[in-house]
Amino acid sequence: MLSNVNIVLGVTGGIAAYKAVDVVSRLKKLGANVDVIMTKSATKFVTPLTFQSLSQNLVTVDMFAEPKKWEVEHISLAQKADIFLVAPATANIIGKIANGIADDMLTTTIMATKAKVIFAPAMNTNMYRNPIFKENMEKLKTLGYEFIKPASGRLACGDYGEGKMAEPADIVEYIKMHFTKRTLLNKKIVVTAGPTIEKIDPVRYITNFSSGKMGYAIAIEAKKRGADVILISGPTNLDKPDGIKVINVNTTIEMLKAIEEYFDEIDVLIKAAAPLDYRPEVVSDKKIKKQDGSLNIKLVRNPDILAYFGKLKKKQILVGFAAETNDVIENAIKKIRNKNLDFIVANDVTVKNAGFRSNTNIATIIDNKGNVNDYPQMSKEELAKIILDRVEELLS
Ligand SMILES: Cc1cc2nc3c(=O)[nH]c(=O)nc-3n(C[C@H](O)[C@H](O)[C@H](O)COP(=O)(O)O)c2cc1C
What stretches pass through the bilayer (predicted)? Predict the structure, then answer.
C-alpha cells in the first residue's frame, strides 16, 4: 500500500514519543521507507536506537554530527520526503515552524522541504488551548500544513481533556489517505446512515437496529477518494468522521428534507440509512400513562425517500440498500425498478455476520441492467470500497 513511499518522521519531546515507535512499525509493515529525525528532547523519552532498529535507517538528531556519508543531510531528507510527518508534535515545534525558526535538524529540514507536512500534536490541554498555540496552528493551516486532530481523554500528566495524540492506527490511516487515488475529486456525494426514530410521546419512540456503520464506512471511503461528502445521519453511537459535514436528523421526514437541500447539486446519493417506514399517527404531548389492557398505536406511512428521489433524479447516481429477511434478490430487483435506482446493495439481515450492527456484511449487488454480483463476507470498509468502485464506473 505504501511501497516506494518515503516518509520522513519527526519525533519531538513529548510523552507520546513512545507511540511514534508504533507509527514507524505500522508504516514499515505497509512497505514505506521511513527516515526518523528526532529532536534532542525526544531522545530523553525514546532512544534513537529504537527508531533505528524499526525503521532500518540511521536516525538523525544532531545537525552538526560527523556525516555517515557525504551529503547535506537536512537537504537530502527534505528532498527525499514524499510526506513529512511530525508525531508527536510539541507546542514548541509548532511554534518554531510557525515563526520561521530553524535551529536544529528537524526544524531546518521541515523548513527546506516541499513535501506535505502533517503534524500530530500532543500536549497538555491548557497548552493545546493556549491562544498562542492556537494562533500558531491556524497560521500553519492557512499556509497548507495539516494537523491530525488530537483526541480527548486522560493525558499522561493526569489531566483530562483535549491534547492526547491521535492513535497510531489513525495517524497511519491519515497518511494512507494521501496516497489513495483521488478518484472522486470534484464529486459531491450525499450518504445517509443509521436508523431514524419516531416519537410516540415525550419519553418513548420507535426505531430499528441499524447501527449506521455501513453508511459511515462509505462516507469515510468517499472522503478518502477526494469527494465532497455530506453524511446525513440518524441517531448512532459512531464518532463524527473528520473532514465530513454531518447533518444529524431524527425522523424519516427530517432525513428526506435534509437530502432535498442538496439533491440538485449532488452527483451521487447513497442511501445506506434504514429510515422508518411508519410513524405514529399522533404524537402525544404528554407521557402516555400505563393502563390495564393493551395499548393500540396507529402507525401511518412515512414517505419513501428512495422512490421520492428516484422520481426527481436527473444526472444523479442513486444507490439503494435492501436489508431483507426473505426473497432478498426478488425484492431488490423490484426496488430497483420502482425507485429508479442505478444499483442496489442487497443483504439478508437474518444471516450471521451480515447486516445491522455487525462489523461485516455479505452482500449482493444488482444493477439496473440485471447484472447480479455476489460478494463473500467482508468488512463494511471493504464493501464500501466495492460500492464506490461501482459508482466510479458509472460516473466515468
Ligand atoms: C515529562 C515531560 C513531558 C512532556 N510532554 C510534552 C508534551 O506532550 N507536549 C509538549 O508540547 N511538550 C511536552 N514537554 C515539554 C517539551 O519537552 C519541551 O517544550 C521541549 O522544549 C520540546 O522540545 P522539542 O519540541 O524540540 O522536542 C514535556 C516535558 C517533559 C519533561
Answer: none
Specify the higher pLDDT residue, 284 or 351.
284
Output the nine-digit C-alpha cell for 176.
494512507
Average pLDDT along the chain: 92
66 pLDDT above the threshold of 80: no
Ligand 1: residues within 6 Å at CB? 12-16, 39, 41-42, 90-93, 122-123, 127
- Cell output for 134: 492556537
Residue from 242, 116, 231, 71 nearest 173 by CA: 242
Q: Is 371 left (phi over 0), alpha (psi -120 to 50) or beta?
A: beta
216-251 as b/e: b if 16+ CB within 10 A: bbbbbbbbbbbbbbbbbbbebebeebeebebbebbb
For residue 270, the 8-state DSSP code is E
Is 305 annotated in a binding site? The answer is yes
SS (H, E, C) 109-167: HHHHCCCEEEEEECCCHHHHHCHHHHHHHHHHHHCCCEECCCEEEECCCCCEEEEECCC
The predicted model gives 306-333 an average pLDDT of 89
pLDDT value at residue 73:
65
How many angstroms is it from 328 CA to the middle of ligand 1? 58
Q: How far apart are CA 33 and CA 218, in angstroms?
A: 30
Residue 157 annotated to the active site: yes
User: What is the CA(129)–ligand 1 centre distance, in A?
Assistant: 16
Taking CB atoms within 8 Å and a gap of at least 24, the contacts of 114-117 are 114/78, 114/79, 115/8, 115/78, 115/81, 115/82, 115/83, 115/84, 116/83, 116/84, 116/144, 116/146, 116/178, 117/84, 117/85, 117/86, 117/145, 117/146
Q: Which residue has the higher pLDDT, 257 or 358?
A: 257
pLDDT value for 68: 63
* C-alpha span between 60 and 53 (Å, rounded): 13
DSSP states of 14-68 = STTHHHHHHHHHHHHHTT-EEEEEE-TTHHHHS-HHHHHHHHTS--B--TTSPPS
Full set of structural domains in the chain with CATH? 6-179 (3.40.50.1950), 188-395 (3.40.50.10300)
